[in-house]
Specification:
Number of helices: 4
Order of helices and strands: HHHH
Oligomer: single chain
Distance between the termini: 140 Å
Largest sheet: none
Strand content: under 5%
Amino acid sequence: MEVESITAWKEQFEAQIKKRDEEAEEGFQKLQEEGEQELSELKEKRTQAIEDNFNNCRSTEEAFVAARDDTDPGNAWKRLAELVDFSSKAYKGQSDISRMRTLLLQLKQNGLAASPTNDADADADEDEEEAE
């Protein structure tokens, strides 16, 4: 009698284990399908973000090149102001460009006047021509 009860228990236990294994396998398959779906959605979103970024960069580059190559006379200072940062803030690791900024602002205000060194060179050239 004892052997039959042990055999019945073993069969019942094996049936329970088999049922749990099947449930675990179904759960694993479900999780795997969800994971694959999420992965494909992530890849699609990433591909779309890369494409959007590429298009945005392309249009920004085209606008920059068009503005840079604009050759309208009298538009030079406007283009220069767009290309050069005239803010007085110097960031860490950035070289000091205050002298360049000052010179560009002076040129904008005063125009392209002859510099004193150029005048002295021109006078020296005239003196040499007279001497000959």
